Amino acid sequence: LHMGKTMKEDLTVVVKYIKQLYPPEFNVFSTYAELYHNYFASEAKKNAESHLEDKDIYLLLSWVHNIYPKDMRKDHVLAEELEKVKLGSLLPSSLSKKLEMKYLDSEEATIKNSLSRCLDKEVQRWKEDKEPEKLNGHFQSELLAIFVIQSIYSGQKRAKDISAAVGEELSHRLWKELPAFLQSYKDAFEDFKERSKKHRYYKPIMIANINNCWNFR
């Protein structure tokens, strides 16, 4: 963040005040821009090749795909001059792809584990001696559906915020996870139906889970 801010502020000063003090053939702005870019890119590459936490991978990919090319290089003061310099990306394509795969694997595993834990808690609630909550007068087991839908939607949005391609790839992966989760949910529910017919709130729990179908659809 400090590097990006410094680069943006300094290049703005070059455009507004320094460039016109030199003859055009000196290409003063290009010189400054290339030096800043090369240093920034070398630091990004060094970070990309080190051990990064998941949140750091996300931040670095955000810089590569979004913050650097869109927020910095499309800045209204700098855009025209930077267009002439053709600086390229902060990371080599191969290294960027490697980081994207790490991010996608991690995000997919995190969401999958989160859904599994949520289902375990839901099944545990069925076993408790408590009536399901009502929403607008109807029994609902709504927490499960809301959590699952929000988890998938949030994961898709985070990935799409990096780039459309990364968002599409994660969506493709999650649309394989969702049927697997729903099958686990169905199996758990079928097991409850068979084993818990004498449960005090058997019928309300059944109704609540049937009402879940609308949310999942």
TrEMBL record:
This is TNAP2 protein. GO terms for molecular function: SNARE binding. InterPro entries: EXOC3/Sec6. GO terms for biological process: exocyst localization; exocytosis. Pfam families: Sec6. GO terms for cellular component: exocyst. It comes from Heliornis fulica (sungrebe).
